[in-house]
Amino acid sequence: IKQYAFLIDKSRVAPVVTIDGERIEKAKAGLAVDGSAAGAIVAGPTAVDESAESEAASDAASDAVEVPLIRIAHGRSGDKGDISNIGVIARAPALWPVLRSQLTAERVKAYLAHLVEGPVTRYELPGILALNFVCEQALDGGGMASLRNDPLGKGMAQILLSMPVRVPRTLID
Q1: What are the φ/ψ torsions at residue 132 (nearest 5 degrees)?
Q2: Structure pTM?
Q3: Residue 107 and residue 41: Cα distance in Å, rounded?
Q4: Distinct helix (H) and strand (E) counts, the chain
Q5: Closest CA to 117 of 17, 31, 11, 14
Q6: What CA–CA distance (Å, rounded) separates 110 from 133?
Q7: Distance between CA atoms of 59 and 71, rounded to whole angstroms?
Q8: Is 122 helix (H, G, I), strand (E, B) or coil?
Q9: If you write DSSP's letter for every residue of 8-20 in order, what string do you get?
Q10: Which of 90, 96, 109, 168 is a good FRET partner for 59, with 20 to 30 A between their CA atoms?
Q11: Which residues of 1-38 are buried (b: 16+ CB within 10 A; e: fewer)?
Q12: Is 123 left (phi over 0), alpha (psi -120 to 50) or beta?
């Protein structure tokens, strides 16, 4: 048996598990099976530069293009128990305000809702142009308990890097 990883648009998948003839549906897109919101979202400690945020927002609104996050950032992830830790680093200093304004704890929580059941906390590391996301209840119990084929969350950064972001065209070219 060998793992073969690939990405598929999560809107095209309806996860279902059948145990002893009982059908169990997994929540999708941040909603519990009953339709209520799944999990809490926590915004982490941050010192916000309002001028950079508003400039990035106005640039994104005017002449922007939608690209996958991997075009503007690098990522790395790992685990500690049932907690996934995802680091995202801007590819260039000019991209840092875009990363800060668009990669919120709420967006990350929503994008990874099919994996992350607990709160998501964002921490800023401006000295290295990076954001760190701590995702709780994200690994189905962790390495020893999880039946997932990535029980340690090593691939979670790669999943997050597929998230669409809006970037001023001048920063992409």
Answers
A1: -120, 130
A2: 0.64
A3: 9
A4: 5, 8
A5: 31
A6: 13
A7: 17
A8: strand
A9: --GGG---EEEET
A10: 109
A11: eeeeeeeeebeeeeeeeeeeeeeeeebbebeeeeeeeb
A12: beta
Q: Is 69 a residue whose pLDDT tops 80? A: yes
According to DSSP, residue 44 is labeled: P
Express each pLDDT in 15-37 by its tens digit.
788 888 888 876 544 444 444 44
> Tokens 């997050």 belong to which residue?
160
Q: For residue 140, give the DSSP letter.
A: T
Judged against a pLDDT cut of 70, whether residue 49 lies above it is answered with no
CB-CB contact of 95 with 171 (8 Å): yes
Amino acid at 108: V
Pairing of strands 16-19, 22-25: antiparallel
Contacts 24+ apart (CB under 8 A), 154-159: 154/77, 154/78, 154/79, 155/5, 155/77, 156/77, 156/84, 156/86, 156/112, 156/115, 157/75, 157/76, 157/77, 157/86, 157/87, 157/88, 158/75, 158/77, 159/7, 159/112, 159/115
